[in-house]
């Protein structure tokens, strides 16, 4: 591999956490550990801390250059983009010590974030025990799980924990090679995503898991961004009493901080917290893109979530200075209010967020459990979106997408994307359609697949304005394509 002479840049590395060798002021950001993956085809950014004014020497692939730490002790080196490869050694030296990072690969890095369904461990997934028992782990996949370092269950924190949270000392983790231990506790969705990408692309894949069970969308957005938008003012004032914050989140956070007496006690459910503690320290670390599974803690307010989610994607991209791909999961099915409307809102946002994709999951849901165990399908559907959108593979990555609904001769004809075949599993009758009338009544619909379209009979005397699909909180809707991918929850007006 040809190595280009490195370029050195000295700028601030705001918000980064650092790993420091014993008896030394020299430190790399915590993301730099043995077994790591650096992003290919993008400038390699290496950064950390040292004594103010200290010269820091960085060596990679036989190249050696120096940076000088600024007045706050921060330094950063930008190396030219490189192709996939490895393993390599990264060495950083200063007058007070040396850090050596071994077994470094260069490939594609994916940031895997959200709440509990992204945090859901492989060992607990339906297919997890069998996956782990096979013992067939791809050594070119590397796992970095940033786990919360304090308990956020139904417990009151002691003074030491409260202070630690206020210091944003929350996420801890190090890169690991996959084995029965590291894979078992890693995100099932992220693991299956990475497994499929690695098998198809044959390049190293790094997966960074930064997820917090129960966390609302606003906790993953930069506080300064939220404060600059009047739509979010109600979230920022006395958030533990704000009805814009899900009641469950307020209750749990209230229990955790019950003994806090700081002027401003922080919490991972609070606006801006997870961004500052977990995302901001990674902003200078190049990635291929993001996969996201979150929304359960915002489903109570669909319109507010729309504004928050679009702000999140836009601000994360602006922070990195690039429109990286962002693939997210349409929430699953469960017998709770607002879930169909929320899923439909997630679908509609695809038209407003460029370079995004949505994986459907309601058919892998559980009517009583917000944490369904079928995670393999979700991870692999996200991978299909990446294979098509990021890697340019000619794969079918989404289920049938409704294009037009036309009223004709007492029937509604639904046209879908033309390059797909419509079907149901084992050719069972088509289910999941409803009609919304002009006076606001919802009525069940008899639907069938006819010559590549869906035909819906209009009940006599009903004036229909909208077709609804998979619009029950928990649904058995069953429209698929030949790739085995389901149509999303959707609504469409009738022409």
Notable features of this structure?
globular; single chain; Thrombin, subunit H; Rossmann fold; 495 residues; alpha+beta
Quick structural overview:
This protein is of the alpha+beta class and 495 residues long.
CATH topology name of the largest domain, in short, is Rossmann fold
**Second rung of CATH, namely the architecture of the largest domain:** 3-Layer(aba) Sandwich
Q: Flag low-confidence runs.
A: 1-16, 20-24
Q: Tally the helices: what do you get?
A: 12
- Major sheet: 12 strands, mixed
- Shape descriptor reads globular
Number of strands: 27
Helix content: 10-25%
Which strand-content bin applies to the residues? 25-35%
Oligomer: single chain
Classified by CATH, the class of the largest domain is Alpha Beta
The radius of gyration is 24 Å
Q: How far apart, in Å, are the first and last alpha carbons? A: 58 Å
Summed up, the domain count is 3
Mean pLDDT, nearest integer? 93
Strand-pairing-aware structural class? alpha+beta
Under CATH, the homologous superfamily of the largest domain reads SGNH hydrolase
Tell me what the structure shows.
This protein has 495 residues and is an alpha+beta fold. The protein folds into 3 domains: 7-101, Immunoglobulins (Immunoglobulin-like); 106-389, 3-Layer(aba) Sandwich (Rossmann fold), CATH 3.40.50.1110; 402-493, Beta Barrel (Thrombin, subunit H). Helix content is 22%, strand content 28%. The protein has helices at residues 116-119, 128-134, 159-166, 180-184, 188-201, 223-227, 233-236, 247-256, 273-279, 302-320, 339-349, 376-389, and strands spanning 7-8, 18-19, 27-29, 37-39, 44-49, 55-60, 63-68, 74-79, 85-94, 97-114, 141-148, 171-172, 175-176, 205-211, 289-293, 326-329, 356-359, 402-408, 411-416, 422-423, 433-437, 442-444, 446-450, 453-457, 464-469, 480-481, 490-493. Strands 4, 6, 7, 9, 10, 11, 12, 13, 14, 15, 16 and 17 form a 12-stranded mixed β-sheet that branches. Strands 1-8-5-3-2 form a 5-stranded antiparallel β-sheet, with no helix packed on it. A hairpin with a 4-residue loop joins strand 21 and strand 22. Helix 5 packs across helix 12 and helix 10 (302-320) packs parallel to helix 11. The radius of gyration is 24 Å and the shape is globular. It starts with 6 loop residues before the first strand and ends with a strand. The model is unreliable at 1-16 and 20-24 (pLDDT under 50).
């Amino acid at each position: 591999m040809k190595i280009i002479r490195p370029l050195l840049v000295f700028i601030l590395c705001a918000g980064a956490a650092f790993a420091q060798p014993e008896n030394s002021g020299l430190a790399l950001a915590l993301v730099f550990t043995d077994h790591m993956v650096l992003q290919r085809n993008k400038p390699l950014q290496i950064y950390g801390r040292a004594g103010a004014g200290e010269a820091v020497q960085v060596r990679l692939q036989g190249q050696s250059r120096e940076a000088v730490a600024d007045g706050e002790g921060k330094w950063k080196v930008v190396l030219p983009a490189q192709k996939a490869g490895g393993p390599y050694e990264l060495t950083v030296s200063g007058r007070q010590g040396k850090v050596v990072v071994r077994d470094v690969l260069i490939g594609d890095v994916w940031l895997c974030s959200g709440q509990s369904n992204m945090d859901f461990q492989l060992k607990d997934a339906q297919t997890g025990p069998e996956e782990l028992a096979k013992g067939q782990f791809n050594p070119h996949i590397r796992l970095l799980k940033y786990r919360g370092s304090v308990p956020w269950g139904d417990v009151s924190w002691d003074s030491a924990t409260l202070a630690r949270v206020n210091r944003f000392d929350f996420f801890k983790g190090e890169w690991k090679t996959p084995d029965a231990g590291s894979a078992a506790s890693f995100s099932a969705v992220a693991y299956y995503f990475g497994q499929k990408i690695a098998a198809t692309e044959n390049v190293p894949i790094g997966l960074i898991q930064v997820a917090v069970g129960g966390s609302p969308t606003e906790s993953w957005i930069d506080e300064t961004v939220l404060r600059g938008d009047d739509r979010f003012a109600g979230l920022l004032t006395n958030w533990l009493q704000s009805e814009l914050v899900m009641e469950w989140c307020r209750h749990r956070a209230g229990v955790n901080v019950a003994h806090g007496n700081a002027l401003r006690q922080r919490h991972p459910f609070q606006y801006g917290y997870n961004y500052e503690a977990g995302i901001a320290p990674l902003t200078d670390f190049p990635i291929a893109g993001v996969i996201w599974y979150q929304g359960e803690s915002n489903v109570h307010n669909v319109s507010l979530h729309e504004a928050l989610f679009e702000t999140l994607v836009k601000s994360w991209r602006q922070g990195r200075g690039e429109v990286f791909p962002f693939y997210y999961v349409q929430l699953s099915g469960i017998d709770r209010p607002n879930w169909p409307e929320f899923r439909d809102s997630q679908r509609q946002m695809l038209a407003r967020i460029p370079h995004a994709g949505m994986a459907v999951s309601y058919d892998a849901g559980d009517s009583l459990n917000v944490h369904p165990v079928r995670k393999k399908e979700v991870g692999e559907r996200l991978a299909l979106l990446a294979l098509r959108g990021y890697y340019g593979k000619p794969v079918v990555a989404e289920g049938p997408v409704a294009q037009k609904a036309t009223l004709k001769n007492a029937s509604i004809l639904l046209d879908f994307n033309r390059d797909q075949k419509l079907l149901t599993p084992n050719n069972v009758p088509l289910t999941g359609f409803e009609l919304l009338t002009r006076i606001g009544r919802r009525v069940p619909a008899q639907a069938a697949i006819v010559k590549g379209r869906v035909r819906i009979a209009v009940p006599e005397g009903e004036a229909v304005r909208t077709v609804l699909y998979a619009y029950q909180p928990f649904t058995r809707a069953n429209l698929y394509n030949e790739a085995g991918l389901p149509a999303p929850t959707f609504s469409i007006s009738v022409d």
